[in-house]
Amino acid sequence: MSSEDAPTRPLDFRRLDPAESVARADSFFEELRRRRSVREFSSDPIPLDAVRRCIETAAQAPSGANKQPWTFVLVTDPTVKSRIRAAAEEEERAFYSGRAGDRWLDDLAPLGTDEHKPFLEVAPALIVVFAQQHGGTKTARHYYVQESVGIATGFLLAALHHAGFATLTHTPSPMRFLGEILDRPKHERAWLLIPVGYPAEGCEVPDIDRKALGEVLVER
After folding, report:
1. What angle do CA 154, 201, 56 make, to 5 degrees?
2. Using CA atoms, how far apart are residues 100 and 93, in angstroms rounded to an integer?
3. What is the pLDDT of residue 1?
4. What pLDDT is stored for residue 159 in this prediction?
5. Which of 97, 128, 200, 215 gets the most CB atoms within 10 Å of its CB?
6. 127 neighbors 153 (Cβ within 8 angstroms)
7. Which residue ranges form the domains of the chain, and what is each CATH number?
8. Does residue 182 contact residue 128 with C-beta atoms inside 8 Å?
9. Residues 6 or more apart from 63 whose CB is under 8 A from it?
10. Cα angle for residues 53, 194, 50 (degrees, 5° grid)
11. What is the mean pLDDT for each group of 10 consecutive residues in the chain (220 residues)?
């Protein structure tokens, strides 16, 4: 393949002093360590331009063959949020009353979750992440869709936290209702629902810990 077929440009990269690299890594760790999933949101408005920039940040993520197989739908309309809550709670009632096994429910018990999802209306914004199974036609293929959308979502959650917002990763299952309510094309599948806002006054979160580095890192 010639350079004309695959044009390039100089990499915009600044090599850091090792001490600065460590300091940046420590600072970023401390910031992300404070991130927690929030289910008690304030209804106070948030600066949507900041949210849009966070979504643009997520769209900088790498993807299979650079197909960028994601769509982010930002929902702030109270009527639409109400419809999403009603549909999500219908699915969640089915989940908690029979679809989930006893072991799954036991694992969820320490988190205090149930079928009631008021945060879907209270939070000032919802971001629905859709995965594009292909490019709109059967011949417009996408590659590593789940991996690509997962990476982009990680960028998004980090960016939203960095911008000062609380978030929740919500996965009512199945999520087909989101595509219907938001009028998305059939080749897009709802991947994740993220309420965004500020924590409610006096918000509390489950008292849980993360695994230590030695439990998740293997070096050879």
Report:
1. 25
2. 10
3. 53
4. 98
5. 128
6. no
7. 38-200 (3.40.109.10)
8. yes
9. 69, 70, 144, 148, 151, 152
10. 20
11. 77 97 98 96 98 98 97 98 95 79 80 86 98 89 97 98 97 92 96 98 93 97
